[in-house]
Specification:
The N and C termini lie far apart (47 Å). β2 and β3 form a beta hairpin. The protein has one domain: Beta Barrel (Lipocalin), CATH 2.40.128.20. It is mainly beta. It has a ten-stranded antiparallel β-barrel with strand order 1-2-3-4-5-6-7-8-9-10. The chain has two helices and ten strands. InterPro entries: DUF3833. It holds the Pfam family DUF3833. Keywords: Lipoprotein. This is Lipoprotein.
């Protein structure tokens, strides 16, 4: 599968438009055998700061652990992005066409008391104005360790505006 396979599909996914404001995601991690290992929720807030889009992700895992990741994302052209975060090694590269976005990056993953470097092949698919599905394959040395699946729900901006006006 290539991002270009989704050229012309709708609704179009752009990071800075979909993630502007607040959204929430629900996710799971399954090992390579399909065993559910972890579930989590993520509260997300995105905003434009100059030529960067800042995406703040606050994770709460089923075991009570919390984590925060702050992405700084630049749109390079109509289809290409680059992103940085503290636990991302180097720069993440993203390619978007139509309703799909593919991120690829190396990541320092905390596992208990140690950290292992893994690779993410991360696919996002916008379903409608509010919903997006995300599936990522996690590998090390080319061997699949597992899959991350997330469902995103974008806050209804019209509803939020009307509640604020009351």
């Amino acid at each position: 599968m290539k991002p270009e396979d989704f050229a012309g599909t709708e609704p179009k996914l752009t990071v800075e438009e979909y993630f502007a404001g607040k959204s929430r995601a629900w996710g799971i991690f399954q090992d390579r055998f399909g065993t559910l290992k972890r579930s989590f929720t993520v509260d997300i807030e995105g905003r434009q700061e100059g030529d960067e889009f800042v995406l703040v992700e606050d994770f709460v895992y089923d075991d009570g652990e919390t984590d925060r990741r702050i992405w700084r994302i630049r749109k390079l052209d109509e289809h290409r992005y680059e992103g940085r975060a503290d636990d991302v090694v180097g720069t993440a590269t993203g390619i978007a066409y139509g309703k799909a976005l593919n991120w690829r990056y190396d990541f320092d993953l905390k596992v208990g008391e140690r950290t292992i470097r893994v690779h993410f092949d991360d696919w996002m698919f916008r379903q409608d104005d509010k919903v997006m599905v995300n599936r990522a394959t996690v590998t090390k040395f080319g061997i699949e360790l597992g899959q991350v699946t997330l469902f995103f729900l974008r806050e209804d901006k019209k509803q939020t505006a009307s509640l604020a006006a009351e």
